[in-house]
Fold:
Amino acid sequence: MHSLPSQAMRPFSLSSPSSHSSRYLRFFPISFPVFPKSKFLNFPTKSPPLIVRNCSSVSTKTPSEFRKNRAVSEPDEKLRALRQLFSKPGVGIDAYIIPSQDAHQSEFIAECYMRRAYISGFTGSAGTAVVTKDKAALWTDGRYFLQADKQLSSSWILMRAGNLGVPTSSEWLSDVLAPGGRVGIDPFLFSADAAEELRDAIAKKNHELVFLYDTNLVDEIWKEARPKPPNKLIRVHDLKYAGLDVASKFSTLRSELVNAGSSAIVISMLDEIAWLSNLRGNDIPHSPVMYAYLIVEINKAKLFVDNSKVNPDVMEHLKSAGVELMPYDTILSEVKSLAAQGARLWLDRSSVNAAIVNTYTAACEKQYKHIEKTNKSQKNVDLNGWSTAPAGIYKASPVSLAKAIKTAAELEGMQNCHLRDAAALAQFWAWLEEEIHKDVKLTEVEVADQLLEFRSRQSGFIGTSFDTISGSGPNGAIIHYKPEPASCSIVDGNKLFLLDSGGQYVDGTTDITRTVHFGEPKAWEKECFTRVLQGHIALDQAVFPENTPGFVLDAFARSSLWKIGLDYRHGTGHGVGAALNVHEGPQSISFRYGNMTPLQKGMIVSNEPGYYEDHAFGIRIENLIVVKEADTPIRFGGIEYLGFEKLTFVPIQAKLIDLTLLSAEEITWLNDYHSQVWEKGRGPITHHGPTGLKKSFGLAIMVFTLQIEANLKGLTGLAFAGWFSPSVALEQHTATRQAVTAICAVHF
Structure:
């Protein structure tokens, strides 16, 4: 993540916060580009605007074409009610922007904060809705184009962000509003950077950005139907899984504060708070975090959280770490108080919301005037090291990088939970294949539910790490597809089936995708799958010098697809938390080349190239990998070289592979991987799963191994140009096949 320029000398103030703004019990940055230029913020909950590549299966449309298949606009009561509030006293706006986020820029949010989904009907995790007095538009990225097209009513314009001819929301507002228009936002839902960039963008047409501190307009029309805020208990994350105690983490952070000339830091990202405090919550689906703010000063710390979530164990844990509890909704008043005391606050403007930053800057302005009036010296320093003249330190949060580099205990937990997860998946795939071959009709939802059942039998399982993407045939082409009971499809044994899923365990977090076919795949499907696999292998085998940012490696995963003019509309890899968010930054592997964060030892990223043909099929192969030191014979320039180590060990279906496309080295990789799958999988099957797992895991490996052998035998009559021999490849399978045969003889 880039560091932002310091604005220590009198930061700007967009507007003066209301005296009632501290009452708030509300809450990846703008989910979809509202600005003409991007800042490439940290993924995931800090995801940058997406740049969508044009693929052969995607045709670019102008905004006017997006509604061609929609009926004539129908009345929308929610939009009507929202627009009526535009002229309410104290509001007075011409447009209102509803982002996806809560007050902490979270990717996944509690149901009561799903305002954009409520107003638009679009349930994808990324998107921005903009409502004017006579129009409504929604921006989302390539992962959600098909889903949004299905879910939006005819009252909405779908803006396919990143496609040619599609304006950003700020550009669109500048065009549709008369000069001098007022654009309203809830400042708690925008990062300070996002709000400033939006303000600057719309100011070009003399439009004004209006902060509505005291009310969220969507909440006003949601009324009693709005779900209650979450209030589930917080738990202590055991030191044996964390690896570092809170005191050690605070000590490192305070050293960073001193070096930056700061007296305190405001932390608002929920996973950063959970990691730093060694606490876990249950406020948000799929993410073990709690709604809170944390202020760490040089000699004390305050956690702003609903006290009803804190049990005696957590209270004692916080007390021993020197953390004082404060009501969640007092964060703004505390920020004002710190400014009045002369605190130099460290604020990450890419994540801390505009309400907090603007409150602090306004309080600083007030303090400056007070100092000038009383003619006090700004050089005086008190016992806390605070200057009597407050000033912001605007830099990236140091917690983000510290959290991304896993401790030895965190890596051990991730390795262990992945093996238990693999055992559940082995049982699941064996079950599903058997059911499909018996011609049992199963819906995508029923399949996802059964996978959850298998996972729930594993020790330490807490829940899913995201909504399972269970997509049969054309639904697999919807990159973040979420099947619904009322509208999902039957899993068709004659079509590709994509399953992207993950689990939260007490010791780690998993995320895995496999694409399979239960019948006879078409030649084109096999070629596409094989090219995706080649990209997966290329990234897995990559060796690169230290200080290499992830975007440098992205082309490794796309190269095989590029050779025939194919591509995919998402990044190749995201960071993953340890018993935390399944998406975390600052590292990523993506074509978004603005993220200069280097990959470092101990970081975990996903390896997930894919290919998607709209209305036909989707393919993705995903493992989690950890950055490790590479043992190279030479170290040019005296620097260290890095590579990857796999965390995920689940078979890759071989019937989908066109072996004529693979090199000998790629086939060796596949053989070695399946050997590791078997060797590493035996432990959790024996010790953590029921007896039936032994049979199912053995069946899964046997099926995949025998399929590889059958495919290779079929190539015997083909002429190869001296670089590949089927017999050699078959010999490489011998050890694995013998091991599988032995276990099957015992358990079948």
